[in-house]
Design goal:
The protein has about 180 residues and is α+β, with helices and mostly antiparallel strands. The chain is built from 4 helices and 9 strands. The protein has one domain: Alpha-Beta Complex (Cyclic Phosphodiesterase, Chain: A). Helices cover about 25% and strands about 45% of the residues.
């Protein structure tokens, strides 16, 4: 069987994706890099990586078993994961017990099913740009003030397959689990 590149994420409502796209346009004035396309914005809960198709039922069972109630989320300031190639620029999220509980429950269920997940602490973020090189005189704190505020409600999580097509990263939903 073929392997799929998989991750589980909370989708963002259209208006929030639109605001993030505007934030990306603002960043382009101060930064070079590879910017996330509007349709690809999401909040990753768990990255599974290359996974055999035969494991899909176990992933779906873990998703369905860990689903709790929906919860509110609020966009936070900009952040950065440094890297040799410039790193990743992202929008953080305000602290959310609902988000952290869902992510922990999902991770625990997946580990029980034998999946090897990252051990580093979960840092919820929305990737805006990769290979991001900021102008030297620009500070993230100052740029954060130019970002659009937004709130939304997490209503579902989706298992996505990620593939490169025609030079673009394409995310295909494979399963949806509603948050009660």
């Amino acid at each position: 069987m073929a392997a799929l590149r998989l991750f589980i994420a909370i989708p963002l409502p259209g208006p929030v994706r639109g605001l993030l796209a505007l934030d990306g346009e603002t960043l382009r004035r101060f930064c070079r890099g590879s910017f996330t396309r509007e349709e690809n914005y999401h909040l990753t809960l768990v990255f599974l990586g290359e996974t055999e198709e035969e494991r899909l039922p176990a992933i779906i069972a873990a998703m369905d078993a860990s689903a709790g109630p929906g919860f509110p989320l609020r966009l936070g300031p900009l952040g950065r994961f440094p890297g040799k190639d410039g790193g990743v620029l992202w929008r953080g999220l305000a602290e959310s017990d609902g988000l952290m509980c869902l992510q922990a429950a999902l991770s625990e269920r997946l580990r029980e099913e034998g999946f090897r997940l990252e051990r580093r602490p979960y840092r919820p973020h929305l990737t805006l740009a990769r290979k991001a090189l900021l102008q030297r005189t620009v500070k993230l704190e100052t740029l954060s003030l130019k970002m659009h505020p937004s709130r939304f409600r997490a209503r579902e999580m989706i298992l996505f397959s990620s593939a490169q097509r025609d030079g673009k990263r394409v995310y295909t939903p494979l399963h949806r689990t509603a948050l009660r």
